[in-house]
């Protein structure tokens, strides 16, 4: 049992005032090396922990502490881990998911928010946080005419600080760009890495699909949109370096599939890819088990595995160890390497979420687009 | 005797205004070399406001770009030289890596001093020999470029040099900004400006200070892809030959690794490795150090000690 909980219960059943003092004086969840104890206080018929970690039970039950309104459950969480979770309360036959009322650390995503457990040794990287010394880039909004989709598409373009028309810039295309900005602090990260000279100043096109599960799932129209409509538009409006090495596509989850697919369909168009927790589902035999939304992904990945070609010269991949996609991601690495692609793969003790993707951006971006820190002394 | 004032980066602490105030007062413009800023060369309005003096940029980056655009043959020769230098640097880095590992291991050895000291000295002398060899190779590549392309009879080049000399003749003080040290030193040497600064008061920060030494050392222990061994880039202007400047050392160096820091100091000895963090200031009259503020020298045993004027 967690030492502070043990202390509370050491002298018998605590009264309400003692429980109040315990709650007020503790940081939740309680972390003792690799033991993490989650605590809920309140009436319920049952309480469960949901943390969407591949390998753990979907819903881990809490136990009551007799004579109190406290519920507790403990999991073993390896050092350096970071997980997102919710509590499920069951009351009078009704079940609902709630944030941990005792934990103020939250992570947001397009579906709302989750509570965050930062295991022993995890620290949010400093470069993901606002630095007043870092000169800020700015955004410009555009509508791009897409012949591939036969419609206009809105994009947001990140223009780095100290932008100059007479300089040429690399292009970074970001799938789910608005989500990356909102949930993975991409603007802060770009500002900071540029300021630290760890990446060169880049022009980044943030794209956001109106139907990502379809368009990012190996859709040829999306590949054409990226390789032709978007690159042409960006080249006309911004001073870009006109070589494949200076064009990088990034994306997470289905966005990773879209990035790989677009580069595969258009060899020699993009020099590098940053793929985070790519949904690279495939089947060796029979049907896959991931549901119909993955059908086109599996078709693409099976075709890709059959004939990978050389979609890019350099690929950075990252994936959380606690997500079910780790198997697919690990499988892809040797295959890409066998195609002569320089691959770097990073695993993290995290799951399929935006903060995992945020925390890997420095190592990925600075590897694909190395900055001038070695030669620039400002 | 010309005064040289060396500063750290001008962010977050600005002290170039103090440096100007400490220099010869006068109303004549200050010559500026901001070639290290590349495309942003000449964007000196902010500096001008801070120092309250008129500034004239020598425009070395722009002049070189104009020359290259007008004369593809010159551009090709220059690119060829740059490619040769890159390849030399790559080969040097490859050999350096092994010697650095050996030197660090030797410095970390524990045991009888009478046995180990000789090994340490030899490990460091091997590093110095490689550095000397690399410097010679870089010099040869530069000479080859000069011999291949007769710049002295190139009309446009001669015009640019005359214009640069004219600007310098009006300026008692020359300010050299930070930026890309490779670009800065290349442009300085292309137009021979490194030879024209001997009698000038100089205020230089970061890369600008590095360029004044006789050897330019690139360093960064905290790159996202891992630390790199300090590398000799080539010759500097040679105006302050006894000092190796390390701008932003607090951010770039693993100061707690005394073996690493000590090796840096011993390798480039007898020159002194000095840090130039933001807010630092070093004043020299000629070669004579007269004042030092927040500047540290690295000792042979890897400590960072205050640099005192003798």
Give the helix/strand layout.
The complex is a heterodimer of chains A (378) and B (310).
Chain A: H1 3-9, H2 16-24, E1 30-32, E2 35-41, E3 46-50, E4 59-61, E5 63-64, E6 70-76, E7 82-91, E8 94-98, E9 106-109, E10 112-118, E11 138-146, E12 151-159, E13 171-174, H3 177-183, H4 186-195, E14 203-207, H5 212-215, H6 220-237, E15 247-252, H7 254-265, E16 272-276, H8 295-306, E17 314-320, H9 326-338, E18 342-348, H10 354-359, H11 361-368, E19 376-377
Parallel strand pairs in A: 13-14, 13-15, 15-16, 16-17, 17-18
Antiparallel strand pairs in A: 1-2, 2-6, 3-4, 3-7, 5-6, 7-8, 7-10, 9-10, 11-12, 12-14
Chain B: E1 3-7, H1 16-22, E2 30-33, H2 45-51, E3 55-57, H3 60-70, H4 72-108, H5 113-148, H6 155-169, E4 173-176, E5 179-180, H7 181-190, E6 201-205, H8 207-210, E7 215-220, E8 228-235, E9 243-247, H9 249-252, H10 258-267, E10 272-276, E11 281-285, E12 288-293, E13 296-298, E14 304-306
Parallel strand pairs in B: 1-6, 2-3, 2-4, 4-6, 9-10
Antiparallel strand pairs in B: 1-11, 7-8, 11-12, 13-14
Helix pairs in contact in B: 3-4, 4-5
Looking at this protein, list some descriptive labels.
heterodimer; A: alpha/beta; Rossmann fold; 2 domains; 8-stranded mixed sheet; 11 helices; 19 strands; globular; B: 310 residues; alpha/beta; two-stranded antiparallel ribbon; 10 helices
């Amino acid at each position: 049992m967690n030492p502070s909980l043990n202390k509370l219960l050491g002298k018998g059943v605590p009264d309400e005032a003692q429980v109040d003092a315990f709650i007020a004086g503790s940081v939740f969840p309680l972390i003792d090396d690799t033991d993490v104890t989650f605590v809920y206080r309140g009436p319920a018929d049952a309480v469960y922990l949901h943390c969407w970690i591949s390998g753990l039970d979907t819903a881990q039950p809490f136990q009551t502490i007799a004579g109190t309104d406290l519920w507790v459950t403990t999991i073993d969480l390896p050092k350096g881990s970071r997980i997102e979770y919710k509590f499920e309360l069951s009351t009078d036959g009704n079940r609902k998911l709630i944030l941990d009322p005792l934990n103020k650390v939250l992570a947001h995503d397009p579906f709302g928010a989750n509570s965050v457990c930062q295991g022993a040794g995890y620290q949010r990287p400093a470069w993901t946080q606002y630095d007043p010394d870092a000169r800020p880039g700015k955004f410009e909004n555009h509508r791009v005419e897409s012949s591939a989709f036969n419609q206009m598409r809105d994009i947001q373009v990140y223009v780095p600080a100290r932008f100059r028309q007479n300089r040429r810039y690399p292009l970074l295309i970001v799938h789910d760009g608005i989500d990356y900005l909102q949930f993975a602090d991409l603007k802060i990260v770009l500002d900071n890495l540029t300021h630290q000279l760890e990446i060169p100043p880049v022009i980044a096109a943030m794209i956001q699909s109106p139907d990502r599960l379809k368009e990012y799932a190996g859709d040829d129209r999306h590949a054409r949109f990226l390789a032709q409509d978007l690159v042409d538009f960006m080249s006309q409006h911004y001073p870009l370096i006109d070589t494949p090495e200076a064009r990088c596509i990034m994306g997470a989850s289905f966005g990773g599939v879209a990035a790989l697919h677009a580069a595969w369909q258009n060899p020699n168009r993009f020099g590098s890819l940053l793929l985070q927790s790519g949904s690279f589902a495939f089947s060796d035999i029979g049907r896959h088990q991931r549901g119909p939304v993955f059908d086109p992904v599996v078709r693409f990945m099976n075709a890709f595995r059959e004939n990978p070609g050389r979609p890019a010269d350099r690929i950075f991949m990252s994936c959380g160890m606690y997500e079910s996609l780790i198997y697919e991601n690990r499988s892809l690495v040797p295959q890409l390497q066998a195609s002569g692609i320089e691959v770097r793969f990073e695993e993290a003790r995290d799951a399929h979420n935006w903060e995992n993707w945020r925390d890997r951006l420095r190592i990925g971006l600075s590897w694909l687009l190395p900055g001038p820190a070695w030669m620039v002394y400002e | 005797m010309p005064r040289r004032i060396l500063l750290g980066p001008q962010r977050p602490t600005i002290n170039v205004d103090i440096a100007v105030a400490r220099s010869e007062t006068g109303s004549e413009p200050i010559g500026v070399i901001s070639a290290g800023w590349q495309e942003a060369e000449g964007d000196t309005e902010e500096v001008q406001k801070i120092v309250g003096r008129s500034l004239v940029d020598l425009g070395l980056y722009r002049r070189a770009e104009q020359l290259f655009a007008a004369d593809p043959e010159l551009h090709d020769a220059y690119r060829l030289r740059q490619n040769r230098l890159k390849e030399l640097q790559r080969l040097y880095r490859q050999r350096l890596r092994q010697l650095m590992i050996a030197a660090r291991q030797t410095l970390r050895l524990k045991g009888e001093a009478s046995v180990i000291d000789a090994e340490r000295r030899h490990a460091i002398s091997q590093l110095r020999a490689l550095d000397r060899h690399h410097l010679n190779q870089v010099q040869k590549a530069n000479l080859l470029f000069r011999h291949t392309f007769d710049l002295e009879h190139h009309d446009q080049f001669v015009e640019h040099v005359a214009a640069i000399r004219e600007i310098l003749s009006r300026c008692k003080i020359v300010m050299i900004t930070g930026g890309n040290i490779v670009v800065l030193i290349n442009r300085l040497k292309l137009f021979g400006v490194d030879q024209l600064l001997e009698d000038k008061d100089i205020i230089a920060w970061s890369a600008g200070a590095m360029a004044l030494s006789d050897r330019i050392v690139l360093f960064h222990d905290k790159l996202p892809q891992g630390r790199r061994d300090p590398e000799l880039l080539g010759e500097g202007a040679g105006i302050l030959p006894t000092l190796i400047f390390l701008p932003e050392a607090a951010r770039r160096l693993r100061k707690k690794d005394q073996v690493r820091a000590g090796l840096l100091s011993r390798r480039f000895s007898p020159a002194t490795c000095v840090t130039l963090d933001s807010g630092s200031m070093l004043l020299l009259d000629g070669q004579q150090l007269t004042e030092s503020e927040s500047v540290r020298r690295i000792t042979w045993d890897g400590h960072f000690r205050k640099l005192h004027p003798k």
